[in-house]
C-alpha cells in the first residue's frame, strides 16, 4: 500500500532573497572591476612579447641563412619605400645582387604577416627599407639599429609598458632591448626608445 504525503508535510522550497542577490551581484562586479584591467594588461603584454619574439626569430633566421647559403639574405618591409614602417609585414629573400630589393628570380625564404592594429613596428633610420646580412653573418646596414614595436602610440600607459625593441649591432648580433632603469621603456645602445615611430 503506497503512503501519501500531504503538501503540508513537504519542506518549503527556499530561494534567494533580494538582499542575497544584490550581495552576489556586488561581489561579481567587484571581481570584474579588478580582474578585467589585469586581463587587458596581460593580453597587451602577450601580444607585444609574441610579436617582438617573431621579429627577433626572423632576424636570427635571416642571419643564419646568410651564413648557411654564403649569400646576402635580406628582410625588406612591405610598406612604402623609405617609411621605416614594418607594420605591414616583410619579405625575407636571398638577395643575389645585394641591392636590398626583391628582384625577379631571387628566392623568397619567408614572408612575415602584417601586424593587427593597434600594434606598430618601425625600424630606425638604417632600416628604412630593409635589413641584410652578408655571408659572414654581419649586418650590411652600416652601424646597426633597432626595431620598435608598440601597442598604440604611447610607450607607457597607466604605468604599464606598451613597447618592446629588438636591437641589431654592426656585427649582426640580434638581441632584445632591456629596461635597465625600471622606467618601463626599452633601451637601445644610445638610450631609451624615444617614441613609437623610432624617430
Helices and strands: which structural class? alpha+beta
Determine Rg (CA atoms, Å): 27 Å
Kindly estimate the percentage of residues that lie in beta strands according to DSSP: 15-25%
Query: Uncertain runs with pLDDT below 50, 5 residues or more?
Result: none
Shape: elongated
Q: Averaging pLDDT over every residue, what do you get?
A: 89
Total number of strands: 12
> Sheet with the most strands?
4 strands, antiparallel
Distance from N terminus to C terminus (CA atoms, Å) equals 93 Å
Main β-sheet, spatial strand arrangement: 3-2-1-5
Query: What letter string, H or E per element, gives the SSE order?
Result: HEEEEEEEEEEEE
Characterization of the model:
The structure is a single chain. Helix content is 26%, strand content 24%. The chain has 199 residues and is of the alpha+beta class. The protein has a four-stranded antiparallel β-sheet with strand order 3-2-1-5, with helices on one face. A four-stranded antiparallel β-sheet has the order 4-6-9-10, with helices on one face. A two-stranded antiparallel sheet has the order 7-8. The protein is elongated. 28% of the residues are buried. The model has no long low-confidence stretch (mean pLDDT 89).
